[in-house]
Amino acid sequence: MLALAFMLAGCVSETNTPISFGEKPQNNVFLTVEVRGEVLNPGLYMVKPGTMLYELVEICGGFTTRADIQNLTLVSEITQNQTIIIPCRTADQPRPSGKINLNVATVDELMQLPGIGKAKAEAIVSYRTKTGGFRQIDEIMQVQGIGQALFNTIKTLITIQ
């Protein structure tokens, strides 16, 4: 499970904006989530059902410069009473720079992409081996577990050349 926040920040209203703890959401249609770790405003939030992790991070003010997002699935949907912890990047984990070439990248290099963990990185390499390589970057959506939302997140970070 993901995790984020060290102190209570506040709740969010229908528009995912902060509200006081004294107010109650209308129709009880909000999810309570705790955010810890490497976000600018960790805390307890109330968000609408269907809110994605990347949206929650925006509500929290964004990631800190030390956030290790390589194994997060930014397009995962928030669930009730979830605790999300955004880990801190270690000194030996440099922030990815430049684009990652899908046709030559190693599993470790692919894992630098947000939302790509070991299993997805291995699936990318396997697909590449079976098909003789990627001809277009959007072909990555043919790999199991990589859909349009994840592609939209990584498309500016990948290349085939």
Protein model, in words:
The chain has 161 residues and is of the alpha/beta class. The protein folds into two domains: 11-86, Ubiquitin-like (UB roll) (Roll); 100-159, DNA polymerase, domain 1, CATH 1.10.150. The chain is 20% helix and 16% strand. It has four helices and seven strands, in the order E-E-E-E-H-E-E-H-H-H-E. It has a three-stranded mixed beta sheet with strand order 4-3-5, with no helix packed on it. A two-stranded antiparallel sheet has the order 1-2. A two-stranded parallel ribbon has the order 6-7. A hairpin with a 5-residue loop joins strand 3 and strand 4. The relative contact order is 0.16. Mean pLDDT is 79; it is low at 1-23.
Keywords:
20% helix, alpha/beta, single chain, Ubiquitin-like (UB roll), DNA polymerase, domain 1, 161 residues, three-stranded mixed beta sheet, two-stranded antiparallel ribbon, 2 domains
How are the SSEs ordered, and which strands pair?
Elements: E1 11-12, E2 18-19, E3 31-37, E4 43-47, H1 53-59, E5 82-86, E6 100-101, H2 107-110, H3 118-131, H4 148-154, E7 158-159
Parallel strand pairs: 3-5, 6-7
Antiparallel strand pairs: 1-2, 3-4
